[in-house]
Amino acid sequence: MATTHTLLSPAELNYLHTSLSLRPPIRSDGRLPTQFRPLTAETGILQGTNGSACVTFSDGAEAIVGVKAEIEKTPDAQSGDEDKGKKARGDWVEISVEIPSQRDDDAGTIFLGEMLREALLGDGEFAKKLWINRRFHWRLHIDILLLSPALSYPLPLLSLTTHLALLATRLPKLKSEGDEDPMFDDDWESSVFVYPREGASEGTRPPITLLVVTVGDNVIFDPSKEELAVAETALAVSVAEVRREKSRGEMEVDTKGRELKLLSIRTIDPPSRLTPPGVPNGTATATDGKPASNLASETPVAGVWKAPLGGTKFSVVDGIVQAVLEKGGVADEVLDGLDGVELA
Amino acid sequence: MPREAEPSLNERNFVSRALEEGLRVDGRKFDQCRPVSLKFGDEFGVAEVQFGKTKVLVKVSAEVTVPYTDRPFEGVFSIASELSPMVAPSFEVNRPTETEVLLSRMLEKTIRRSGALDTESLCLVAGKKCWSIRADVHVLSLDGNLTDAACLAVVAALRHFRKPDSSIEGEILTVYTPAEREPVPLSWLHSPFCITFSYFGEEGDTAVLLDTTWLEEQLRTSSCTFSLNRHGEICQVSKLGGVSIDAPVFVQCAQVALAKSKEYTELVDRKLAEDAKSRDKGGLMAELTAENDR
Amino acid sequence: MPLDTSTYSLALLRVDGRRWNELRRLHAQIRIQAAADGSSYLEMGNTKVMCVLTGPSEAQQQQQGQRRGQATAGGGKNASINVSIVVAGFASVDHKKRGRNDKRTQELELTIAKTFASVVHTHLFPNSSISLALHVLSADGSLLAALLNAATLALIDAGIPMSDYIAACTAGSTSSYAAADDSADPLLDLNTQEEQELPFITVATLGETDRVAVLNCESRVQVSRLEGMLAVAVDGCKEVKQLLDKAIKAKGAKMIREGAAEKSDAMAMDLDE
């Protein structure tokens, strides 16, 4: 589902698999196992939006995200209701993913969108930011466009772009009070960021979703298309930074570290699990029925790729989560990198 | 997926050589149309148009619905067209082909977007009730020039159509049966017609044909459809790709199209008058009389 | 939002301050994406589109359903050209989702595919397909024209042989269909506001010739206005063609200067500018 078959022979797949199983693994593009592709990022590129970002990976993969906000009336606002605080709903956020050469109702595309949505709304904090008053709320449309032809599974790219676009999103400043019809400040300069900048910034920051694969005992981040084709497990791990207000008296010892919160883990169906074309019936696991011949035995042949069978061990998942969350780990590194992007 | 049968090389050469010599396969002149027949059904709002072997039937129906929330003062008007496998095996149900998309867009632009039908007159109670007029286009057989035939049929059927009369007292809406009150025609503003020109030859200048047959249509290198009413208003022009044509040609084509559009207007007017005459049995007195023909 | 056309006849300046025969700022770029075979980015005023081209590659056997990208030059002997248009939700002022099954978008796709099928030398690539993915990032009038221009640039970037450029622009007429005054002036290159108020045509020509590849009009207009609008639009297309040409030559010169491409002896281009 993730990507279609790469046109690689069993021998080539095996070569990839063996070099990735070495300790330390050797990746075909020479990266370290935890290294991301270099990227360039820009924000505030679309004037007509509340926030936008464009990210380009060094291999040419490019995505653009625009966030647009509209005011909407909250249905059945019971005025008599006791002030239950801000009642917010996740469906105030709409995410649409457009991938060229794929239908917009394709299961894969919808899955991608839902994964990003889940990470964003997971802890229920985000929807609260869209609350205006008891009668009105913001409806946020997040449109994600993949501009380049689909090279590898675009999840990390789309997630990083969405992260930046959300950081750059601003909403007009509210002038009215209470439950009256909302009035906003016309001045864009005085608009407020959805995710406040430095200073009184408390709460969850926008999430990032990382794509992690394992080959043998190795955990590899940001896999390329070829690496995905031999992966034994592929996981999408969503994390977000949580900032807490520091009490005055506390000594600022631990200022460097950021607190990370694990939001969700989803398994991705890597193409390595599919039966590659040209495999005789006997070894194809999908045909279930009688093998065409008994010649093809189940024993692996050295130098020939065989699709992995079975699920993921818990310890492997655990290892991945550790690698993502640890201080100075991958998520930390990526967030550090993204912090360097100037927000327009 | 079945594909259309393509004409053989011999057929291609024959047709294009003939065109170079100024002849069409069926002996017509370049700007001559096949005989057009327009018939109305027994019911109001049914029209059948025939251009040679191309045959299109249109049926118009009306019902009361809720208007769209963004247009509370307007009724609903839609044109539905579907090409079934009955026409040609290359058309499949539920899978709009290129021809079908272009046909429905063409009718939409020519008739709906140009405001031929006054949709505001279809409003009954603002934001609550309105008429929904629907024209269903059925293509019975196809031998080229589908757009022109379909457009003529839709316009004729809509002008022939009578919707039940209604009245509003306070909040109560009454729709009368034809026996209670004579049905009323739609509020029709102007009658646009589609005229398609087909261009032949590598440069598009070998021949300019009107009313092409299916064979000619498969061999044309480019086409352009004009939609005009008799007042000389262009409602739509579309030359969507194909071989490029010298710009002044379009200006000439527009004049030819205008003349043709007047011809069609006259045809529809005459046929409608004939139909009205055949329905008119001499008024109420004639209906009430007990006298019989013996 | 009614456009106050009365001010036009006084100052002869349009809402955005242009004169009748002025194009909006046209900004074109090619080779913007490393991963694509050909790519382009085009701005015509506030209309911003992007084209990413893949191919010519092995024809996909109706893999993803015929619904998307329409093959025009029937496969087999010729290459087919597939076009898909994605209009981003944030492209216009209010957020509106246009599905891919939208007939208007499909008509645009068909128009672009058919136009290029007659210009590109498809017979050189039998049994293959050329896919154009067009992204509309911001729509402010003259959309079809911008898409056609962007597609031309991407095809040139990919080095696919074609007989000439396809250059497109729009032209309108200052009086609406209701007013029958004959003093109507044609206008060049309309923005959304003008498109909503005035009748207009979209014209694409073959290079700098008078040959029209696309002529599209969706609004009511007197037939006598057609000639005037057509003449203005064709002149506009010539101007657009020169601007596109300039963008491509500038990029070519830059690539030679940077050493990305070799200067051939036959090239008579002056790189000094």
From TrEMBL, chain A:
Compartment annotation: Cytoplasm; Nucleus, Nucleolus
Keyword tags: Cytoplasm, Exosome
Database matches in SUPFAM superfamilies: Ribosomal protein S5 domain 2-like
Name this polypeptide is given: Ribosomal RNA-processing protein 42
Assigned protein family: Belongs to the RNase PH family.
Start and end residues of each stretch annotated as Disordered: 269-295
Residue span(s) of domain Exoribonuclease phosphorolytic: 35-172
Annotated PANTHER family: EXOSOME COMPLEX COMPONENT RRP42 (PTHR11097:SF8), EXOSOME COMPLEX EXONUCLEASE RIBOSOMAL RNA PROCESSING PROTEIN (PTHR11097)
Main location: cytoplasm
The keyword Cytoplasm is annotated on this UniProt entry: yes
Keyword ATP-binding included in the entry's annotation: no
InterPro entries given in the database record: ExoRNase_PH_dom1, Exosome_comp_Rrp42_subfam, PNPase/RNase_PH_dom_sf, Ribosomal_Su5_D2-typ_SF
Automatic annotation (TrEMBL), chain B:
Region (Disordered): 275-294
Intracellular or extracellular location(s): Cytoplasm; Nucleus
InterPro entries in the record: ExoRNase_PH_dom1, ExoRNase_PH_dom2, ExoRNase_PH_dom2_sf, Exosome_comp_Rrp42_subfam, PNPase/RNase_PH_dom_sf, Ribosomal_Su5_D2-typ_SF, Rrp45
Entry keyword set: Cytoplasm, Nucleus, RNA-binding
SUPFAM superfamilies, A to Z: Ribonuclease PH domain 2-like (SSF55666), Ribosomal protein S5 domain 2-like (SSF54211)
Pfam families: RNase_PH, RNase_PH_C
Entry-linked Gene3D superfamilies: GHMP Kinase, N-terminal domain
Predominant place of localization: cytoplasm
Highest taxon of the lineage: Eukaryota
PANTHER family named in the record: EXOSOME COMPLEX COMPONENT RRP45, EXOSOME COMPLEX EXONUCLEASE RIBOSOMAL RNA PROCESSING PROTEIN
Protein name: Uncharacterized protein
Species lineage: Eukaryota, Fungi, Dikarya, Ascomycota, Pezizomycotina
TrEMBL record, chain C:
Cited InterPro entries: ExoRNase_PH_dom1, ExoRNase_PH_dom2_sf, PNPase/RNase_PH_dom_sf, Ribosomal_Su5_D2-typ_SF, RNase_PH
Gene3D superfamilies: GHMP Kinase, N-terminal domain
One Pfam family per UniProt: RNase_PH
CDD domains for this protein: RNase_PH_RRP41
Domain Exoribonuclease phosphorolytic per the UniProt entry, residue ranges: 22-161
PANTHER family listed in its UniProt record: EXOSOME COMPLEX COMPONENT, EXOSOME COMPLEX COMPONENT RRP41
Family as reported in the entry's similarity comment: Belongs to the RNase PH family.
Protein name: Exoribonuclease phosphorolytic domain-containing protein
Gene source species: Bionectria ochroleuca
Taxonomic lineage from the root: Eukaryota, Fungi, Dikarya, Ascomycota, Pezizomycotina
